[in-house]
Write a structure and sequence with these properties.
Keywords: Membrane, Transmembrane, Transmembrane helix. Helix content is about 25%, strand content about 35%. The chain has about 450 residues and is of the alpha+beta class.
């Protein structure tokens, strides 16, 4: 009887009145109700249930939790057997350490990017494709020196510079040469401060040596009160072999076609056949070869550069060392141009040189005084370059293999292409947080809240 429904108990009490049995039932009913109420109150007041509530906010709203020493380089290893997990955690990885661990946040990739602004080119006939930023020659471009060796003359060999054509705001090259010590470090991009064409490559480390990899980078350049923000992506595919084990033609062709864009027309371009044939011819003659172009796109806001290279590296004392194929695609796009309140000032004074500040992840750490000597009368502080955020993705293949399927993993390559827009968007968000303006970046924040309060339901 003590476990029956309250209605049954009420009917029993009504029929039994204040008899001994009725009093016993009444006592235990009241005791049971009080005990149940006490347990409910104890749970609600002392150990309530909690849920996470997600909301989108601007990063600047949590400025007090910003990590001002966050890393500017994020490394991502792409395991073909773990790509699903990599995709699910990508936003957390890209946004890691921007704010203190006490906040549960995720970058959304939503950024108010602003408007890019370019100017009329000051030169066209003797330079390749550039993004022109002012009338004094301030510009950004893919590395138009990447096709040159470290020296135009080595021993009795001279690099055939006439096989490189600049004109009309673009460049193209198709060269077979016998200089074995070709530069393997310059690979990505340059910025040009003035019409005098002072050039600096701030991404040389990515291009060093072999190895298939991808890079996404957000950087800013500031001259006076004008600041420009760029996003750059680089894909590099390589194969390596010993000279006594030459590359097979089918592997060279497969790598050249698969390392191109997703454009099916380009992958079937007959020009590819010529490139592969020229590479095989250079290998047969123990020569080096490269072909490529750079050009403007997207209303001159984007610069694209492609290079297909076969390099036979030898040492007169040791004999042949290795043969290397390096295929690169570089894309640089101007995201926004803006006027800031105050121009940058020298981080450190430099006598008798022209120089600029160098920042990494929004933090100015040095100037480039060393090696920038010039006439004292030409002493100039150019401005500031900030390498805001860099992603280097490894695992695209075995960089020491001479087999195309091993050098460039098809599964990883496909995933990288499918995720490229998302990766770029997330890294633009990271770059804006540390180097541009966190009020323009949206993130998702999870707050721990009581499950039952103020009319809220589970």
């Amino acid at each position: 009887m003590l476990t029956e429904d309250y209605i049954q108990r009420f009917l029993f009490l009504s029929s039994s009145g204040l008899s001994r049995a009725g009093l016993i039932v009444l006592f235990f009913s009241i005791f049971n109700m009080v005990a149940s109420l006490y347990g409910t109150l104890l749970w609600a007041l002392d150990s309530p249930g909690y849920i996470f509530r997600e909301s989108n906010v601007k990063v600047a709203e949590y400025e007090s939790l910003r990590n001002m020493d966050s890393p500017y380089i994020i490394q991502l290893y792409l395991d073909p057997n773990n790509l699903q997990n990599t995709e699910e955690t990508l936003a957390q990885v890209v946004g890691s350490e921007l704010l203190k661990p006490s906040l549960n946040y995720t970058l959304t990739g939503e950024v108010q990017r602003g408007t890019p602004k370019i100017t009329t080119p000051t030169r066209q006939d003797d330079v390749g494709a550039r993004i022109w930023l002012d009338s004094e020659g301030f510009s950004v471009s893919p590395d138009t020196l990447a096709m040159y060796p470290l020296s135009e003359r080595i021993d009795d060999q001279v690099f055939p510079t006439k096989l490189i054509y600049f004109g009309g705001g673009s460049a193209k090259w198709n060269c077979t040469f016998n200089i074995q010590q070709h530069v393997l470090t310059r690979d990505s991009g340059n910025y040009h401060w003035e019409a005098r064409d002072r050039i600096d490559n701030i991404w040389a480390s990515f291009g060093a040596g072999g190895g298939s990899a991808a890079m996404v980078q957000v950087f800013t350049v500031t001259k006076g009160t004008r600041r420009h923000t760029f996003v750059e992506s680089v894909l590099r595919a390589t194969m390596l072999t010993n000279p006594d084990v030459p590359f097979a033609a089918q592997d060279v062709e497969d790598l050249v076609r698969r390392s191109g864009t997703m454009n099916e027309i380009e992958s079937n371009d007959p020009h590819i056949d010529q490139i592969v044939g020229d590479m095989m011819s250079a290998q047969d003659q123990n020569l080096s070869y490269h072909s490529g172009f750079n050009t403007a796109d997207n209303g001159n806001l984007t610069e694209l550069q492609r290079n297909w290279g076969y390099y036979s590296v030898t040492n007169p004392a040791l004999g042949d060392q290795f043969s290397l194929i390096i295929l690169t695609t570089t894309n640089i796009t101007l995201i926004t141009s803006e006027t800031i309140d105050k121009p940058p000032t020298p981080f450190k004074n430099c006598d008798h040189v022209s120089f600029q500040n160098e920042a990494f992840g929004g933090r100015i750490t040095q100037t480039d005084c060393v090696g920038r000597t010039t006439n004292k009368n030409n002493n100039v502080f150019f401005g500031q370059v900030d390498t805001a955020a860099v992603l280097v993705a490894y695992g695209l293949g075995n960089g020491r293999s001479g087999v195309s399927s091993e050098s460039l993993d098809g599964i990883v390559m496909s995933w990288t292409r499918n995720m490229s827009a998302r990766i770029e968007g997330l890294f633009i968000a990271r770059g804006y947080v540390v180097s541009v303006d966190p009020t323009l970046v949206t993130m998702s924040v999870d707050k721990l809240m009581i499950a039952i309060f103020g009319g809220q339901k589970w």
